[in-house]
Design a protein that fits this description.
Blueprint (H helix, E strand, L loop, with lengths): L6 H10 L10 E3 L5 E3 L8 H11 L6 H14 L1 E2 L6 E2 L5 H14 L3 H25 L5 H21 L7 H21 L20 H14 L6 H5 L7 H10 L1 H7 E2 L4 E2 L5 E3 L4 E3 L4 E3 L4 E3 L4 H26 L5 H6 L8 H32 L4 H10 L3 E3 L4 E3 L7 H9 L15
Antiparallel strand pairs: 1-2, 3-4, 5-6, 7-8, 9-10, 11-12
Helix pairs in contact: 4-5, 4-6, 6-14, 7-12, 12-14
């Protein structure tokens, strides 16, 4: 006979379990795990009140207080959504607002255009060094790049194309180039070749800002200052344990360099730990702020393709715009001498956007040139920076070319190796180390 179950106790247990109430479109769970409302976004913030008070009284604000204010603002900056308000990354908002305002003001007069177009790169560099020093990931530059593409295309369709100098075939070519840029950029933002740490249990690192901050906070816990080299020597490779353990014994100094205490793994050759992403990347070249991700073994080719497509499309669009605004003049002459361009607002805005595109294109062309040189010498940007710090390797053309010589196998072999990146594994994978 089965024992009888008391229905009253079952009902009591069900009533004791609290059911979570569904969030309305204006409610959310804040970073402290408490339920909050969008109406109370500017309430109960002591740091913000203190900051406003010190700003009104012309007193300096402590850096720690400023960081806490920015963390609070970024946590409360949300939009109403189904089943709770969604958090919006605050770094994507400034380009959407400031870029059209600056370009429209710059089109009022030539002097205003010179001042604003020269100050925009300085402001962008200042913001880059600020975030780079704090080791923060930001969507500002990705938002700036995507919105610049969209806004330049919008101005081209509204102000340049209706003047009748751009044919349908040219417009289709420019539009296809824009879509190809977005496709290549999407490919470049994929996994650059993250090394899976044993602590992650085989899961790839997430790009969620919350997960990134948690991972960075755990890096100090992962690295043990008293960890000896003997604990590294006890790790073996599943595929070939004898050869790898022999390498550990014969060359312990190399193993010490390849061991990442933060990710708790032994890195293969040319892999580096990105201090911004908080993970190790295979054949890491650099952390690109324009795609908000690392450039590594798996996405380096897509990154070069996106750069080349952008340069071709941008130069083509600039040529079409200048041929429409400044007729019967060459492209180079029209950039510096285009009489009557400020006579009406439409041509002035188009000319200002052309110069903005020229500045962005020149910066991307420099990055593309450096990438081509590094690929030709089979060196990554990370290895170039290390060689410059340690004053090793050959320096040519006033430091534009840096050749450590460690992996250089000749021009053709270097490009062949680059074309086969990600198709074969040259070193034992670090995720097989237990």
């Amino acid at each position: 006979m089965a024992p009888k179950v008391n229905r009253k106790t079952v009902k009591k247990k069900k009533t004791e379990e609290p059911e979570l109430e569904p969030l309305c479109c204006c409610e959310y769970i804040d970073r402290n795990g408490e339920k909050n409302h969008l109406v109370a976004s500017f309430c109960d913030c002591q740091d913000l009140d203190e900051g406003c008070e010190r700003w009104i009284t012309c007193k300096s604000l402590h850096p720690e207080t400023f960081e806490r204010i920015m963390d609070t603002i970024s946590d409360r900056f949300r939009i109403p959504w189904l089943r709770g308000a969604k958090k919006v990354n605050i770094s994507i908002i400034p380009p959407l607002i400031l870029l059209p305002i600056f370009l429209h003001v710059a089109s009022w007069h030539l002097l205003l255009g010179v001042i604003i177009l020269t100050s925009l790169p300085a402001l962008a560099l200042g913001y880059y060094y600020l975030t780079h020093r704090r080791k923060d990931r930001t969507l500002f530059f990705l938002s700036l790049g995507l919105f610049s593409l969209a806004y330049m295309y919008y101005v081209f369709l509204k102000e340049v194309a209706p003047k009748g100098r751009v044919g349908h075939g040219q417009l289709v070519t420019l539009t296809c180039g824009l879509f190809l840029i977005l496709i290549a950029l999407r490919q470049a933002k994929k996994n650059p070749g993250y090394l899976k740490s044993p602590i992650q249990n085989g899961s790839l690192p997430s790009n969620n800002p919350v997960d990134l901050s948690n991972r960075k906070a755990q890096e100090k816990v992962k690295s043990f200052p008293g960890e000896s080299l003997g604990s590294v020597n006890n790790r073996i490779v599943k595929d070939d344990p004898k050869s790898y353990s022999r390498t550990l014994v014969e060359n312990p100094n190399k193993v010490k360099e390849d061991w990442c205490a933060k990710c708790q793994l032994v890195r293969p050759a040319r892999a580096w730990h990105c201090r911004i992403c908080g993970v190790c990347v295979r054949r890491m070249d650099h952390h690109c702020i324009w795609i908000n991700s690392c450039v590594g073994e798996s996405n380096h080719q897509a990154f070069i393709l996106a750069l080349s497509l952008f340069l071709l499309t941008s130069v083509y669009g600039i040529t079409l715009a200048l041929d429409t605004i400044c007729r019967d003049r060459s492209v180079f002459t029209a950039l510096f001498y285009c009489p009557g361009v400020y006579a009406n607002y439409s041509s002035a805005l188009s000319f200002t956007c052309v110069w903005y595109s020229v500045i962005i294109t020149a910066g991307m062309a420099y990055i593309f040139l450096i990438q081509l040189i590094n690929i030709s010498y089979n060196v990554t940007e990370r290895e170039v920076q290390q060689a410059l710090r340690e004053k090793t390797g050959r320096r040519l053309l006033c430091g534009l070319i840096v050749d450590p010589g460690q992996y250089n196998r000749g021009f053709l072999r270097n490009w062949h190796q680059f074309s086969t990146l990600g198709t074969r594994t040259l070193h034992p994978p670090a995720e097989d180390i237990v």
